[in-house]
């Protein structure tokens, strides 16, 4: 049985990855589903049903604490982990000028250093054994910045840069490192990101910026979740296929509708094309989006035709 350690399993994507691997018909996985607060384990335990204590085990791990990470890894037999899935993460939206530095630090501490901390702890044993697989739940925002998500995107960009370097180094040790880059996924993350923002006041921010955030970005984000939103199950299946692939890819975008948006970025080295396209989508074309998916497809492929970009 392969030992899999997953972070952030109290809800959402981490919970689904843990349960899906534990449910494997061939019982190939011994899943250590970790979370920072064991009082939040009920949903996971319920979803695991009979598999709890058989193929799925719960352990405490706070990705922001050196001590917690060491304690958890040391509690595993021979510290042997075949597959590490870094999933724990938090979002942060809003006008940058209103976000306190300690909130920004917390996002980096969780999303970037949280993953780095786990990788540092687990990677030396994988290198020694010349075997191992690391899967990092990044985001499309690790490849493409989105207005009003600057700090979150920066934390995921940092993760992409860190892992791109490491992936090349690890190849000579037969350890693979893969990123998953989901677009919007319906989890508690969405609720925290959108619902929590509706009532919030922004006293220290100029009225134009508050207007752009409230009346352009937030409705746009709601539409994007409605039109493009995937389920945690979808991301869990994709994670499973990365785990099972003989030669897993480094980038794994889970939502094909994002490929044209990213193509814009790589098609124009000045970066102007993608900044302008995002500007248009946010401020000019957004009202069209709620007409539905076909319109979004038409718009993104329309941009590509206009600038003669191939979808592949
Ligand atoms: N939902 C989306 O639209 C997208 C999400 N992602 C990424 O997917 C990952 C999972 O998010 P998702 O399932 O959607 O959101 P959820 O909010 O449902 O899950 C996030 C998980 O991370 C845990 N977590 C937060 N901080 C820590 C910490 N310090 N130590 C350990 N665990 C922690 C949370 O635990 P607790 O319950 O204790 O807060 C929770 O279990 C994140 O990395 C996110 O950035 C990427 C693209 C899109
Ligand atoms: C694409 C796009 C938008 C919003 C995208 C959002 C909200 C994406 C959310 C992605 C998530 C949640 C990733 C998690 O890691 C805008 C700015 C509304 C308009 C321009 C096009």
From TrEMBL:
Pfam families: adh_short. The keyword Transcription regulation does not apply. Signal peptide: none annotated. This is Uncharacterized protein. Keywords: Lipid metabolism, Oxidoreductase. One of its GO terms (cellular component) is cytosol. It comes from the Eukaryota. NADP(+) binds at residues 8-36, 62, 156. Substrate binds at residue 139. InterPro entries: 17beta_DH (IPR011348), NAD(P)-bd_dom_sf (IPR036291), Sc_DH/Rdtase_CS (IPR020904), SDR_fam (IPR002347). Belongs to the short-chain dehydrogenases/reductases (SDR) family. The active site is at 152 (proton acceptor). GO terms for biological process: estrogen biosynthetic process; retinol metabolic process. One of its GO terms (molecular function) is estradiol 17-beta-dehydrogenase [NAD(P)+] activity.
């Amino acid at each position: 049985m392969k030992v899999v350690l997953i972070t952030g399993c109290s809800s959402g994507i981490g919970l689904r990855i843990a349960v899906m691997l534990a449910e494997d018909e061939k019982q190939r996985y011994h899943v250590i589903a970790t979370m920072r607060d064991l009082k939040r384990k009920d949903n996971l335990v319920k979803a695991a049903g009979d598999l709890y204590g058989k193929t799925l085990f719960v352990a405490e791990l706070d990705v922001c604490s050196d001590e917690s990470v060491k304690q958890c890894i040391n509690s595993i037999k021979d510290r042997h982990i075949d597959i590490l899935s870094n999933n724990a993460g938090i979002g942060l939206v809003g006008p940058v000028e209103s976000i306190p530095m300690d909130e920004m630090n917390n996002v980096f501490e969780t999303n970037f250093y949280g993953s780095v901390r786990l990788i540092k702890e687990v990677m030396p044993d994988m290198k020694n054994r010349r075997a191992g697989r690391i899967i990092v739940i990044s985001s499309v925002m690790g490849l493409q910045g989105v207005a009003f998500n600057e700090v979150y995107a920066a934390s995921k960009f940092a993760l992409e840069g860190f892992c791109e370097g490491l992936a090349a180094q690890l190849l000579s040790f037969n350890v693979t490192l893969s990123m998953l880059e989901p677009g919007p996924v319906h989890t508690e993350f969405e609720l925290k990101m959108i619902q929590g923002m509706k009532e919030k006041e922004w006293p220290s921010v100029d009225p134009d910026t508050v207007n752009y955030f409230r009346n352009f970005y937030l409705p746009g984000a709601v539409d994007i979740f409605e039109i493009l939103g995937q389920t945690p199950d979808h991301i869990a299946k994709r994670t499973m296929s990365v785990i099972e692939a003989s030669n897993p890819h480094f980038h794994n975008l889970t939502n094909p509708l994002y490929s044209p948006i990213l193509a814009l970025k790589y098609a124009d080295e000045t970066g102007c094309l993608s900044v302008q396209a995002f500007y248009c989508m946010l401020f000019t074309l957004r009202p069209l989006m709620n007409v539905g998916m076909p319109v979004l497809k038409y718009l993104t492929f329309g941009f590509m035709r206009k600038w003669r970009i191939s979808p592949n």
